[in-house]
Specification:
Elements lengths: L2 H6 L1 E3 H8 L3 H10 L7 E3 L2 E5 H9 L5
Antiparallel strand pairs: 1-3, 2-3
């Protein structure tokens, strides 16, 4: 898989939480309260995150 395809790959909330060292419930709470600007994608009732967005969030140091 090339780098761009990997960056655009959608991952679950559990996988995103693991990348961030957080619990999935924390990401769910952030999404509900709009506490942070971590981009997410809703597909029906499912939530997904792009790898690139999670990595960018990490690089930004959790700042808004």
């Amino acid at each position: 898989m090339n780098n761009q395809m990997n960056q655009n790959r959608l991952i679950t909330r559990d996988e995103a939480a693991e990348m961030l060292g957080l619990k999935p419930q924390t990401l769910a709470k952030w999404a509900h309260t709009h506490r942070c600007r971590l981009k997410m994608i809703k597909i029906g009732s499912r939530v997904r995150y792009r790898v690139a967005d999670v990595e960018e969030f990490i690089e930004d140091g959790y700042r808004e």
